[in-house]
Design a protein that fits this description.
Blueprint lengths: L10 H6 L4 H13 L1 H8 L13 E4 L5 E4 L4 E2 L1 H5 L4 H4 L3 E6 L6 E5 H17 L7 E5 L4 H13 L2 E4 L6 H10 L4 E5 L2 E3 L2 E3 L1 H10 L6 E5 L13 E3 H6 L10 E2 L3 E7 L7 E6 L1 H14 L7 E4 L6 H13 L3 E5 L10 H9 L3 E4 L1 H8 L4 H4 L8 E5 L5 H11 L6 E4 L33 E4 L5 E2 L3 E7 L9 E2 L3 H9 L6 E9 L5 E6 L3 E4 L2 E4 H9 L4 E11 L3 E10 L7 H14 L8 E4 L13 H8 L16 H8 L6
Parallel strand pairs: 4-17, 6-7, 6-8, 7-14, 8-11, 11-12, 16-17, 16-18, 18-19, 19-20, 30-31
Antiparallel strand pairs: 1-2, 3-13, 4-5, 9-10, 14-15, 15-24, 21-22, 21-23, 23-25, 25-26, 27-28, 29-30
The protein binds adenosine-5'-monophosphate-propyl ester.
Catalytic activity: acetate + ATP + CoA = acetyl-CoA + AMP + diphosphate
Organism: Azospirillum oleiclasticum
Enzyme class: ligase
Length: 646
Amino acid sequence: MTDNTFFPVKPEIAQAAHVDEAAYARMYEQSIADPEGFWAEHGKRIDWIKPYSKVKDVSFEGDVHIRWFYDGTLNVAANCVDRHLATRGDQTAILFEGDDPSVSKAITYKELHEQVCRMANVLKKHGVKKGDRVTIYLPMIPEAAYSMLACARIGAIHSVVFGGFSPDSLKDRIVDCDSHFVITSDEGLRGGKKVPLKANADKAVAGAACVKHMLVVKHTGGTVAWTEGRDLWWHEEAASVSADCPPEEMSAEDPLFILYTSGSTGKPKGVLHTSGGYLVYASITHQLVFDYKDGEIYWCTADVGWVTGHSYILYGPLANGATTLMFEGVPTYPSVSRFWDVVDKHKVNIFYTAPTAIRSLMREGEGPVKKTSRASLRVLGSVGEPINPEAWLWYYNVVGDGRCPIVDTWWQTETGGILITPLVGAIGQKPGSATKPFFGVKPVVVDNDGKELEGETEGNLCIGDSWPGQMRTVFGDHERFVQTYFSTFAGKYFTGDGCRRDADGYYWITGRVDDVINVSGHRMGTAEVESALVAHPKVAEAAVVGYPHDLKGQGIYAYVTLNAGETPTEELRKELVNWVRKEIGPIASPDLIQWAPGLPKTRSGKIMRRILRKIAANEHDALGDTSTLADPTVVSELVDNRMNRA
Ligand code: PRX
């Protein structure tokens, strides 16, 4: 696909949008020339208890620190709930669509207020205080939103763990942030299947002595084990507390949440986001990127276990007084028309999903889409991984009937909100390009030596200055924050992504340049999968790389060396896949496992991943320089027995 396929903004769309091309140019220029002035003005979009007079205090070098609006105070939950009560108390805040298509429920802002207050009071009743960490391990049900907002209301820090993670992964995340309180449900429901969340949480907590209480939401009614004194039913507790809870006055830089994410090395790190800047950024991007207008129905299909769910199911939309749809299920249940059935049922105007979902539905053909109306749709969004132009065009032509602009939004857990994206009314689209930076975002492309590259170019994507939604630190390990993001290219935030900038100044994200892989939009460290594999008693060594996968974007390819005396069998292969599922979670299951009698290493013993990536990609003709290998014969053995021949 060349850069020439261009979808200009239609005049009628530009005219009705919050931001058109001229406004984008003017505002972007101002946001870069005078970030303090720009954000001083836009910070006012949320309610402050004590208004800020200081806007920005940032250093990406030396004593790395990031502070925004830092003498202001606010409460994030009050901004997402209370401030709408007078004007839209009876408007639907959360539209819940169950896994079972016959189940849906509308929760008004008034009802949301009551539920959040009750949850906050339950937390308080059991000793949760400002600054304490609360781990949330819930399915996509309204109680997930109540829990997060209840934490925000009393100043506790939430750490949401995706329901697909194993007990072990959950335990690590509970222990790392020393959480005393866990919120879960009896079971989750996805595609008609039950997920044993309480049982998983029980196993996790057995290894996490810090946990004092587990609050359990009755969702499916399935039987659960019960630990008296520790476990509490949400419905019983809710009835025992008041429906009013005054919001805590928080400093702009008080932590709002921790979200664990994978990096190139070690265990997942706790990305820490704070209150004021994060909310300003989530709110402004939600409004301007999607061109959200009052009264619209907005649906982001992500899970609240990921940052997309935090910023664009919950905080951004609710800060803007939107109706946000929360979907418990999967795109293929009970049929592959489900997404579009839900769009028609709730008259969804703005729809935001991941390329992997688009690709999996595309393979079912146009029929299941075309039998639905989708007339309510106005804007389509994509997030999580590069969208291939073929999927982009299908999304545009088939799902959107050629009517709806697509915003391909590039961002990360660390960035808190969208950084590079089209704005519906301002920036014409090229399929596969995330296009242009949002206000205040200064992309810088550097070569491997850190030299800034100008004009049309390709290299490592860095961001030259801070924006309010940026993460502030790694929970409990500021040094790791500095090392991970600010040491590769001094004075710049390094994203870990590669990109190309074309002659029109459009950015094309080319994927990770580090040892992070992106499987169906889920981010994973190859090191995490490797350590799960070597924990198996029969495995001596393992190396994991990503490889191109039609549906998932990237698949997981594992090279495994067994202990001396072990025989590689099909059965063992299955056992290892299940082992990794159990250790980390189903999203980390290796797609391909190749038995490797030896791994390509340098004489100093470093595994040459470049070679392994090439073999996994079935590009073994282009292995590059192999002269530094300690034993070049291992390579031909691996090539001969490669698992991907596509
Ligand atoms: O490689 C980029 C890819 O996802 C990574 C961030 O993953 P995570 O922190 O889990 O957040 C995902 C949701 C914001 C990035 O480093 N990525 C995300 N969005 C895009 C993308 N790659 C290309 N295009 C995108 N639109």
